[in-house]
Each structure stands twice: as C-alpha cells, then as structure tokens.
Design brief:
Blueprint (H helix, E strand, L loop, with lengths): L2 H71 L6 H5 L9 H13 L2 H22 L5 H18 L8 H20 L7 H21 L5 H8 L3 H12 L17 H4 L10 H10 L5 H12 L4 H8 L3 H21 L1
Length: 332
C-alpha cells in the first residue's frame, strides 16, 4: 500500500466526518432558532393580550372611579324652596354630570361631544334672545364657542351646577361680541350700556300700554334725557345695515334699484373734457360769446343788444366759432 494514498484517504475521511458533524450542529441550531421564534411569537401575542386586558381593566377602573366621583360631587337640590324654584333645571342628570367629570379629568373628546350636544339648544336660544334676525347665525356660532370654553373651564369637583356658570360665560361673550363686532358704527360706551335698558323698558311699556311707547315715556321710566333714548334708537339702526340686495316687493325690485340715482352729468364728462381741449386757445371774446349763448341761455338778440351789435353779427360770429371748433375736432 502507498503510505501517501493512505494519508490522503484519512484526511478526506476526517474532513467528511467534520462536515457531517458541522451540518448536524447547524440543523440543531436552526431547529432551536425556529422553536425560539415560535416561543417569541407566542410570548408577543401573550404580552399583547395582557396589555389589552390591562388597558380594558384600567379603563373600567377609571370609569368606575369617574362615576364614583360624579356621584359624590353631583350637586343636588336642597330644600323645598329650591325645588320649587325655576333654578331646579340647573341640576343636571347623573349621566350628564358623569360626562362633566370625565371631560374635566381626562379631556375625553367623546364626553365633550356629548356635553356640547346636550347644551347646544339652550345656548342657541340664549343667542337668539339678544340678537336680531340678521345677526342670529353669527351670534349662535359665538355662543357655541363660548359653551366649549365654559366646558373647558368648569370644575365639577366644586359641586356647583354647570348651567348658571355656562349662562354667564355665554352671555358675557355675546355682549363683548356685540360691543366689538356687532355695530357697523360703534357707539359710545354710555349708549351701549343704555341700549339693553331701553329695549327691556320699551317691551315692558308696550305690554302695559298696549301700544309702542314714545321716547319721552321710555326716558321718564329710566330717568334719563329723551335725547339719550333717541341716540339709542338711532344706534340700533346702524347695528345691522340693510343689504342693497334686499327685495322691496314682489316685483323683484331691490334697495339698490331705488337708493340714489344716476348722475346725468356723468356721461358728459368725456364730452366736457374734449370740449375743454378744443376751446383752449380761443380768444376771450369768442369764449364769452359761447358762454352767454350756450351756458347762460341768452338769445342772439339779447346778446346783440348787450354788445351793441346786430343780431346778424352775433349769428355769424357763432357760426364762425363753431366751424373752427369742428375743424379742430376733425383734425384730432
């Protein structure tokens, strides 16, 4: 036997055994990795399930906590006199008060939407009471924005009803809006503060007298000057100016059709400018003759008598001047 051949065979056999052993170890590692990956996926699913369960339990716990706080802090009517008063409507139900607590503690958007939906009709009515038909849309929008501000600022743990708080907040916001934005021409502070007093007094006197009260009657009740009442009435007319597109009747005519009238001299502006250029350079006597005849409206005989010439001379002079002006106009 060849010793070199035997050594090579031994080396090849050792390498084959080593390769087989490495492959088996690699297969075992792959199997272990697959098992580890499967266990990791199971662990991940288990953790996700645990997190969902924990979140659900936490939400349930917080909800119960909020309901407990709402039950404890909810204001309740005290005494038969309070129950019999009109303010009993200021005490809301348990569900609404729970939403107050939920929004105040966690600023929950769903709770805010429920509260806005619950109080929206009331603030809309409040806006309509102090507005006019033309300004209702703007005032309603301002009132709803004030409602959201009131909900954000309200603290239910003080155990006070929300409705009076919201009513004052909305009323103050509406009055500031009317003071700053509601007038086309802003009145003085004195007139602005007197306006609601005049309006309420006028409504009361109309019921008492069965007719519209006069400015003197309103002034007597308020103990103010009649001129001040008249100023208030005048300022109310500029709060919402009339639209030029406002229809005046069934014929489709609008305020723009009858407000003012066209200037008859407007169409003559171009002609006058052209005539002024044509008359530039005319002798003063010719300009004076044109002015007496066409502007002052004197007859040719009256001009002739004033100038001490014949009527024929005036007629020929006018014809000469007009021919000159026509020639200039044709040349330009």
């Amino acid at each position: 036997m060849n010793p070199a051949s035997d050594a090579t065979s031994l080396k090849v056999g050792a390498l084959g055994a080593s390769f087989t052993d490495s492959r088996r170890r690699a297969e075992r590692l792959l199997s272990q990795a697959a098992a580890s990956s499967e266990r990791l996926a199971q662990l991940r699913d288990s953790v996700a399930t645990s997190l969902r369960s924990a979140k659900s339990q936490l939400a349930t716990m917080l909800d119960r906590y909020d309901r407990a706080i709402a039950e404890v802090s909810m204001p309740r009517p005290q005494g038969s006199q309070f129950i019999a008063s009109r303010r009993r409507t200021d005490v809301c139900d348990r569900t609404t008060w729970y939403f107050h607590v939920r929004y105040a503690r966690r600023h929950d958007q769903a709770a805010l939407e429920s509260l806005v939906s619950h109080y929206q009709d009331e603030v809309d009515r409040q806006a309509r009471r102090i507005g006019t038909r033309s300004s209702n849309d703007d005032l309603i929008q301002v009132a709803r924005e004030a409602l959201v501000v009131a909900l954000h600022r309200f603290d239910p743990l003080r155990r006070k009803p929300f409705t009076p708080f919201a009513r004052l907040t909305v009323d103050g916001t509406l009055r500031r809006y009317l003071r700053d934005q509601g007038y086309a021409i802003r009145p003085s502070r004195r007139i602005y503060e007197l306006t609601p007093r005049v309006r309420h007094t006028a409504e009361w006197l109309a019921q008492e007298l069965g007719r519209a009260p006069t400015a003197n009657e309103i002034a007597d009740v308020l103990a103010v000057d009649t001129d001040q009442v008249l100023e208030v009435i005048a300022s109310a007319q500029v709060r919402s100016p009339l639209s030029l597109d406002r229809p005046l009747g069934e014929d489709g005519q609008t305020l723009a059709d009858v407000a003012g009238q066209g200037d008859a001299n407007l169409s003559r502006t171009v002609d006058r400018q052209a005539l002024r250029q044509l008359m530039h350079g005319l002798p003063d006597d010719d300009r004076s003759l044109l002015n007496e005849y066409f502007i002052a409206g004197h007859t040719q005989q009256e001009i002739a008598d004033a100038r001490g010439v014949s009527q024929m001379h005036v007629s020929r002079s006018l014809a000469r001047i007009l021919r000159r002006l026509r020639a200039r106009a044709s040349a330009t």
